[in-house]
Amino acid sequence: MADTKQTKTIGEHYAAAELARRGWAPALTRDGLERTDILAVMAEGAGRRLVEIQVKTARGEKAERVSWPLGNKSQAPSAHGREYFVLVAVPLDHSVRPRSFVVPRIHVAAAAWIAHMNWLTDPGAAIGKRNAPVDRSRVGVDTFIRYEDRWDLLELDQADAPVLLPPIYRNYALLPRVGLREDHEWQRALPEW
Q: For tag attachment on the chain, is the N or C end more exposed, with fewer CB atoms within 10 Å?
């Protein structure tokens, strides 16, 4: 079994390296700064841009099969428009490079709620077999596949970023049995995707 602290370190350093490769100046924060593992500044171009990034890392036999725990803190509303997640999938095979998914915080929050509530309230599920609370939400690579290596999204505020979640998630968000968390930003207006 992998050491969780080591897994976290792999993800944070991998994300920082990828940011630096793309012209960002990343700074790892100290443990204890809630919701932010990396502060990154883009100093090139017309102006400076600062973003806050929370890194979630998961290991698995194959990177395409990992899922990330996205509980209550991950589903909480954004503090501002420049909060992002970098989800890192680390395969157990050291010869295969990790995969990264760059996702605006509001998209992660929506995906975590929608995925879990759809699973929990699935009419086809056996009664009494699914009872895990939403703070136990886990979301897999397939949900975030269109965000893979989308480092360009960091150049946009969350409200301007295209929603790249699976199209069916929008339909689920409109269902009374699924919906969105009551304090989610999209309660005001669900974007098209």
A: N
Dist CA 130 CA 192 (whole Å)? 30
Total domains, the chain: 1
Output the pTM of the full model: 0.93
CA pair distance 96, 90, nearest whole angstrom: 8
* Orientation angle between helical segments 167-174 and 105-120, nearest 10 degrees: 70
The pLDDT value recorded for residue 112 is 98
Report the alpha-carbon distance of residue 185 to residue 159 in Å, rounded: 10
Q: 57 near 37, Cβ under 8 Å? A: no
Instruction: Extract the tokens encoding 47.
Output: 């102006």
- Give the chain's mean pLDDT: 92
Q: Domain residues for 145?
A: 4-187
For residue 60, what are its two tokens? 């698995």
User: Which phi and psi angles does 126 have, rounded to 5°?
Assistant: -65, 135
Domain presence at residue 45: yes
Q: Is residue 22 part of a domain?
A: yes
In a domain, 193, yes or no: no
Residue 118 has pLDDT above 80, yes or no: yes
- How many angstroms from the chain centroid is the CA of residue 153? 13
